[in-house]
């Protein structure tokens, strides 16, 4: 009876370790891919009047539910998610691009890689690893759209 109980307790752990890449392997792959093309690239900044920003310094005309029209009629917003692995764990690449609609010029883009989950099941929150880390400086739109403080 004790042997059966031990097997039932250890079996999920053995199965989790035997199936697919480990969290450590996926985290290393996140870092490797991020070193190749991760981060933010701004090709042109757009200076806007202060009334286009909220009190936190974010543009106030971004409507994420509007797909490519999320930045209104003047700009095109594109966001693509490519899943290398779905489930537990997830491993994906998030590529965001902002274009000026008038001439089709790419103003800036960002690429992030993230692993989420891969932990043993339980009541706790799963772990994740992202590169580059999210911060105010990692928001491509904050770097493209800047406040004109001379008004």
Description:
This protein is an alpha+beta fold and 151 residues long. It has one domain. The protein is 25% helix and 31% strand. The chain has three helices and seven strands, in the order H-H-E-E-E-E-E-E-H-E. The protein has helices spanning 2-18, 23-37, 140-144, and strands at residues 39-42, 46-48, 75-85, 90-100, 106-116, 128-131, 145-147. The strands form two sheets. Strands 1, 3, 4, 5 and 6 form a five-stranded antiparallel sheet that branches. A two-stranded parallel ribbon has the order 2-7. Strand 3 (75-85) and strand 4 form a beta hairpin. The longest helix is centred in the N-terminal third of the chain and has 17 residues, at 2-18. The protein starts with a helix and ends with a strand. The model is unreliable at 13-18 (pLDDT under 50).
